[in-house]
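Lay summary. Proteins are chains of building blocks that fold into shapes, and those shapes determine what they do. In this project we predict the shape from the chain. Here is one chain we studied, written as its sequence of building blocks.
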Amino acid sequence: MRHVLTTSALLATSAALVAATPIDAPEEWNVDAAHTEVTFEVRHFFTPVSGKFDEFEIELIYDAEDVSNSSVRASIPVGSIDTNNERRDEHLESPDFFGAASYPQITFESTAVRRVSDTEFIATGDLTIKDVTRTVDLAVAMLGVKEIPAEMQEMLGGVGRVAAFEATLEIDRNDFGVGTGQWATDAVVGKNVSIRIAVEANQPAEM
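And here is the predicted shape, written in a compact code that computers can read:
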């Protein structure tokens, strides 16, 4: 399993984004897969049902001085979907929904990042599901950034700085052709899907 995010994913995530710790140029951050989640929620009749993607690759770069120089790219294998129900997962991977055999990846690539407040950002980009690409705005909150004390860096594998982000997005699955068979017609599955990406990323300590 490779993890490079993170956004939505999925995911997702964005980026950019740590204005609390100034740096001179854009730098890449490493996503900590053990502390990163790409999750979603959709209604079955009236009941919210949640799931996640267990695999993802993300390239995250940000410029704290000028977030417009930041970027994020994410790729999520559809086959890693996990709703804690094997039969449901197989149905979601089928042509009724994602068609994983024909469309194995969900991708997001930012085209612009802008600051909304000191701790909030918008990452605009292209979200592709089932070869349908639409422009979306990923709302990102910076949860915090921390410099790791020198005495703790070896214990943490040489990590010198840690940052956390939470990104959210709501999409209409019909916009991407996900669930266009009898299940959608019967209105069993809700059309609106809420996506949440919680990301912890780090950089190595300076040598």
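What the prediction tells us: The chain has one domain: 8-204.
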